[in-house]
Amino acid sequence: MRLSPDELIFWQYGFVKLNATIVFTWALMAVLALGSMLVTRRLSSSHERSRWQNLLEIVVTAIVQQIREVGLAQPQRYLAFLGTLFLFVAAASLATIVPGYQPPTGSLSTTVALALCVFIAVPLFGIRERGFGSYLKSYLEPTALMLPFNIIGEISRTLALAVRLFGNMMSGAMIIAVLLSITPFLFPIVMTALGLLTGMVQAYIFSILGAVYLAAATRAGAPAHAADANH
Fold first, then answer.
1. 80-99 pLDDT, tens per residue?
2. Sequence-separated contacts (24+) of 62-66 with Cβ below 8 Å
3. pLDDT tens track for 16-27
4. How far apart are CA 196 and CA 169, in angstroms?
5. Which of 29, 35, 153, 159 is most buried (CB neighbours < 10 A)?
6. Domain segments of the chain as ranges
């Protein structure tokens, strides 16, 4: 049993390896990019719209509403970033119905990369909304003595995001694999549905946590690390 798609090597030359994580990540990105191009190439503002456009509008509207409920007053500014995070993690889970596919989110390298995206985006959005000086000042609150602890909090938060997603995705895949090997004809459909549900929940949690961190960083008068107290 493979614990990670990193262990499945498709091609290797010296120390250069092309494993399942890289292959399925790029394949997933290509599918998402191509799908978005096909759906948005003929958008209509009339009542006669394609089913794909209706589905896209439902997804976008739901994401915007969730971003607004987190506390970001202008959700459209964060839609591209947070929406991409959600769609990538969700699509990585939904694609598990394809035989031979292994979700790249089952690799720690992928989840770390996603967490680093949030780690970089938080100060970028915070500086844009509050200004460079005001954002940096938040690391000195409530006193300057808290600076090292606030920095450690930022780093630990990033690690927590990565490990949480990796652990949940890997453990879910392992449990399903074990149950299917024990009862291959009794629970395959139920276990597949459970895996898809788990993946969607993890996609929602990951994107919502990212939105919470962005809200804390962009809200004037609130420390960028304030969200850690609640999560």
1. 999 999 999 999 888 887 87
2. 63/207, 66/207, 66/208, 66/211
3. 889 889 999 999
4. 10
5. 153
6. 48-229
